[in-house]
Sequence to fold (300 residues):
Amino acid sequence: MLPLQSHPMRQKIGVSAALTTPFDRAGRIDWARFTAHAKKLTEDGIGLVTAFGTTGEGASLSVEEKAPLYDEMAKSGPGATRLVECIYGPPSDTAGRLTGRALKAGAAGILLTPPYYFRGVPDEGIYRWYSEVIERAGADCRDIILYNIPQVTGVTIGPDLVSRLREAFAGIIAGVKDSSGDWQQTEAMLAQHRDLAILVGNEAHLARAVQRGASGAISGVANLSPSLVAGLVRGEENPMIVPLLEKLLALPLIPAIKAVLALIRGDAAWAHVRAPHLQIEDQALLAECAGIAGMLRKAG
Fold:
């Protein structure tokens, strides 16, 4: 097994913005805005950007819609080497094929979502699914970040499962994105795997996690304020983060992030979402979004 304290993904990540996906009025991916947003974030100091994760509404997008990603990033974005792609199944063959394609295109890494839909399956089943994905991806499989978001997938990726996958696939498992929001889970992951890139999804826990060895975040809030999240990744506590998250989480989260981004950028097109999400149009909710945008402007 690689000495993972020197694994490239641990040094690469820092802050990765979980890119929100812009849509045009017909609901198609707006690639011009997508690549411009990715490029701006990297110019603002973001190490990597992550495409089609939860914040990016990736589960609502077809394989065909996502297919132009690498051509578009090469044409007018920061390029594939600054990109992590979130890959979904649930069929292991589909996830493995898409993982192999993304890595051949030069992706920096893969945020690999566990199989969803079937709930209550044992760790053995999850282990076998990940094994099938990695084997299907091919001999050059690398830089896999396991995505632990049980409130969405119904699957918990615990430290023992990570240990087993690391042992079976030496050097391929690069990290874990822990979006469980459970500090005890994050602590347990850090206790066993701090030599991996442990990435924290809950920004309220981020500075504390970094102080204990986490290497960064794949963050939705980074779309709105890369500098705020960068400070947390440096281990700097910020009293603003908890009230900010409370305000965001009181709203439909993904539509709220997009509405706030639309206000910050002065570009209403950013507010478009894909079903089953609904664009925020209620005036009271829009006023809450305006308040959040004002908080972020004051914070710089």
Remarks:
- The chain has two domains: 4-236, 239-300.
